Amino acid sequence: MTKHVLVATDGSDTAMKAVELAAEIAAKFEVPLTVAHAIHFGRPPEELARMAEVEHLVEGAKTRAPVDFPNVPDTMLGLFSDTRPEGDSMRLVTMIGEEIMERAADRARELGAKTIDTRSTVDDPAEGILSIAEDVGADMIVIGHRGLGRLKRVLLGSVAQKVLSQADCTVMAVR
After folding, report:
1. CA-to-CA distance for 143 and 147, rounded, in angstroms?
2. In this structure, what are the phi and psi dihedrals at residue 100, rounded to the nearest 5 degrees?
3. Less CB within 10 Å around the terminal CB: N or C of the chain?
4. Cα 135 vs. chain centroid, distance in angstroms?
């Protein structure tokens, strides 16, 4: 029987499907749900641009970030192509990650999950997800089959593939 569910999200549409399934499972079995996100420091900005544009996360994060950006860009690509101090960019990326987790946790609550925690990592995404799963005692990980990567066929959700092959618990990959 499932005792603790972890869902990994990167803010993509597929990840939101994973959040919804994980929330339904957590609600049905009345077990805790942990929402996990890997902070995208050092990730190729092109990989992040689609998410930020579709989800409008940069705009939401800039209103909450305690950072003085006179001309905040509309995309993650713009954010990293400028010559801002590294610390400010890192703070904004962290705020975007927090926004991703908050949206996922809110959706999980809407679907009936009662006990929800959020965790983030600055690790390799797959390694971070596996580490968080171990830390919280998750016996099920739910993850999107594909996330933000553009080379979908080649990567086959390289994060999902790595989690599937290395996890010590049940893993569900959502399409």
Report:
1. 9
2. -60, -45
3. N
4. 17
Helix axis angle for 86-110 and 13-29, nearest 10°, is 50
Q: What is the pTM of this model?
A: 0.74
* Dihedral sign for Cα atoms in the order 125, 129, 130, 132: positive
Using DSSP's 3-state secondary structure scheme, residue 70 falls into coil
| Residue 157 backbone zone (phi > 0: left; psi -120 to 50: alpha; other: beta) | left
Buried b / exposed e over 20-30, threshold 16 CB at 10 Å, is bbbbbbbbeee
Ranges of residues in the chain with a pLDDT under 50 are: 54-55, 83-85, 150-156
First to last CA, the chain: 24
**Ordered structural domains, the chain, with CATH:** 5-174 (3.40.50.620)
Average pLDDT over the chain, rounded to an integer: 80
pLDDT of residue 30: 98
